[in-house]
Amino acid sequence: MLTEERSLNFIEQIIEEDLSKGFPKEGLRFRFPPEPNGYLHVGHASSICLNFGLGLRYNAPVNLRFDDTNPAKEEQEYVDAIKRDIEWLGYTWDKELYASDYFQELYDWAVAFIKRGIAYIDSQSSEDMAKQKGTPSTPGTDSPYRNRSVEENLALFEGMKNGKFAEGTHVLRAKIDMSSSNMLMRDPIMYRIINKPHHRTGNKWHIYPMYDWAHGESDYLEGVSHSLCTLEFMMHRELYDWFLDQVYTEGKTRPKQREFARRNLSHTVVSKRKLLQLVQEKYVTGWDDPRMSTISGMRRRGYPPMAIRSFADTIGIAKRTNLVDVSVLEFCVREELNKTAPRVMAVLDPVKLIITNYPEGQEEWLEAENNPEDESAGFREVPFSRELYIEQEDFKESANSKFFRLSIGKEVRLKNAYIIKGEGVVKDEAGNILEIHATYDPDSKSGSGTEASMRKVKGTLHWVSVPHAVKAEVRIYDRLFSHENPDGDKEVDFKEYINPDSLHIINGYLEPSLKSAEAGERFQFQRLGYFCVDKDTNAEQLVFNKTVGLRDTWAKIEHKE
Fold it and tell me: Which of 365, 432, 486, 558 could join 497 in a cystine, given CB atoms 3.0 to 4.6 angstroms apart?
């Protein structure tokens, strides 16, 4: 049992209460049950962290069970992607299971339901079925097929299983209560005909169980103790329990369904159907586009797995749905990368700086710290020469006292190098600056211990040596949606809020230590932000994705607007 009750969330409180009433700790078992009809998104990440987190906390097994009951939408690609995402987040499942593992047991139970008179074949159209279900304020009416004989129901059900009927001609319904105040209890569908091959069972089955029928019974067959769902399944709990009542055997673990609130993320959508739309209509390059709210997209963008776990822990779980600002996630990413990402120098909007009193043809290698947050990260050497690239915004010909970067007549320090003084510029005919000229103080080398090196100047600039610079494509990302809740107004197509400026591609110059950087590696480009090597990188071209800035500038922009 947990000892720090002050830190328990309401799900943990339920588990603790069950343990205190005698439920054996060794009987605890959880599950994460994704449907393999798309890639997992940030909402799934919270559910993954909840279920697997409980497993770690209670030293209990957690199953990965794919809800593969609709072959019309499911693919092996999605199964593989889901497994990859969970492993990347750092979790290990006890058993890899599938609802399709239980198709025979579910079918056998359904046959038993028919024989007991609590299930029947309905041959109405879906429109007629919807009409006879009634409304929340008026009771439903019985299907004209509700009192079919057991023999006819059994024959039709077997024919459905064997592919003798077209889709939509028949369904199997549970016979419960057409006047129930819970619409889900008004003879819910248990099976429908889908004449498509299944990614695991092939053409063996032509009927597939509905979620409400398959889910609780799969939990029961696996010995799951606590089945955790999002709030939209709260009304389903009564049906979940009714189905269990029909099959439960005393002495076995009876699963308990409990619900928690979704955590929606601002400036994103977390509907797999809508994410699929973005992919199919080519608003993004794929499920793993770094602008997507998918776990694959966040991984490609450079988010560390521990940052996502920290985010899930930070927002916690609750009983009420709310919108979490994406800046909370970005804060967690920044915190993690600050501890782990090596510091390097890159210039993304370059202008050439020539140190006129530095000997032509000379170069030297200067020591640079890899990460001040991690002493074990050590140091590297970066080349210095007469010609450097600096950022255009780091220079003004003339500037007031509040500008602490380079200008004519003012001194700044070059990171890990020397103090320089702006002397002049070379411009083209249109007045654009082609070169900045400066002089350096040879005695001011960083770390040399000389009096000149100890001299205080107000600005420090990053730079890259021109003859040693490595060119790279850098992809700068913004929010995919300009509206904080693009899915909030059902009268407006969410795609109307797509930000047309969500991606800018630029060419930058990097220090040569990055020449051998590999896909997935993360770095802090000093003074610019955190960046990750993209999978599009090859021997000819380095490609970097901007993961997140050094600080939250979006909040300031939104505040101004």
Answer: 486
pLDDT digits (tens, 9 = 90+) for 329-350: 999 999 999 999 999 999 999 9
**CA dist list (Å): 13 to 2, 8, 17, 234, 310:** 9, 6, 6, 18, 21
Beta bridge partners of 546: 531
Is 262 among the catalytic positions?
A: yes
Active site residue 105: no
486 is in an annotated binding site: no
Q: Is 409 exposed, middle or buried (0-12, 13-18, 19+ CB in 10 A)?
A: exposed
pTM of the model: 0.91
Type and span of the H or E element at 211: helix 211-222
> Hey, what amino acid is at 432?
N
* 506-527 pLDDT tens trace: 999 999 999 999 999 999 999 9
Could you tell me if 351 and 432 are in contact, meaning their C-beta atoms sit under 8 angstroms apart?
no
Q: What is the 3-state secondary structure (H, E, C) of 412-463?
A: EEECCCCEEEEEEEEECCCCCEEEEEEEECCCCCCCCCCCHHHCCCCCEECC
Annotated binding-site residue? 71: no
Among 35, 238, 335, 387, the one annotated catalytic? 35
Residue 502 annotated as part of some ligand binding site:
no
269 is in an annotated binding site: no
Tell me whether residue 179 is annotated as binding.
Answer: no
Catalytic residue chosen out of the listed positions 161, 237, 256, 262? 262
- Cα distances from 317 to residues 1, 57, 372, 420, in angstroms, run 19, 16, 34, 53
Residue 423 annotated as catalytic: no
